[in-house]
Amino acid sequence: xxxxxxxxxxxxxxxxxxxxxxxxxxxxxxxxxxxxxxxxxxxxxxxxxxxxxxxxxxxxxxxxxxxxxxxxxxxxxxxxxxxxxxxxxxxxxxxxxxxxxxxxxxxxxxxxxxxxxxxxxxxxxxxxxxxxxxxxxxxxxxxxxxxxxxxxxxxxxxxxxxxxxxxxxxxxxxxxxxxxxxxxxxxxxxxxxxxxxxxxxxxxxxxxxxxxxxxxxxxxxxxxxxxxxxxxxxxxxxxxxxxxxxxxxxxxxxxxxxxxxxxxxxxxxxx
Length: 271
Prior knowledge:
Elements: E1 19-20, H1 23-33, E2 40-44, H2 50-59, E3 62-66, H3 69-78, E4 84-88, E5 105-110, H4 116-123, E6 130-138, H5 139-145, H6 156-164, E7 165-173, E8 178-179, E9 186-193, H7 204-216, H8 222-225, H9 232-237, H10 251-270
Parallel strand pairs: 2-3, 2-5, 3-4, 5-6
Antiparallel strand pairs: 1-8, 6-9, 7-9
Helix pairs in contact: 1-2, 7-10
């Protein structure tokens, strides 16, 4: 009988660790992921293997990324090399465009709350190789990820991720499902990358900077919020009302603004 719990290991605040332990919620998450034999599954932050054990039972094998050396050592005592391939690394620093090169990935994880947004952006670099992603995140973060234009939770995270993924909030997970219990409710989100050929053409660097500037001053109108990128006339040329506030625009409108900003920048350099 394999050990179910790593005795004496305390959740480390610097790694944002909260370990899932409730069997009901573990089962519900595993059913949502629906792992199959042959799937190239990567789990970020397997921790004490609550999900890992169940996923391996379903798929036969998993690759896991774990930054905590003590937990990595524990995981090696729980699984054979044929069951678990362990990458001891910081998920934020991995080259997600080349991990398990040549394979179509399914990425899962209970993401640390303290690095969730930067990690979601880091994962975008390998999105063209991903089938789907299932993550447990702070409810507030998931609500922002799936928010629609015109809502209070709609912001930079919403726009940037919705440009690249179709997202579905599946269900909430209460604090009592974890040890130690976090002070917030968690949610499960499913992220399915949009086909590369369907993505609107845009300079991603300009797009990201413009969207970031817009929501940094979200109470201002666009004519003020993105003035570094476009004049009022430029905003209108992109088919957008300069008097609108940033949360009123959908992803396509931001793409048009970024493309107009890029065009005008090119024209200026050509002079």
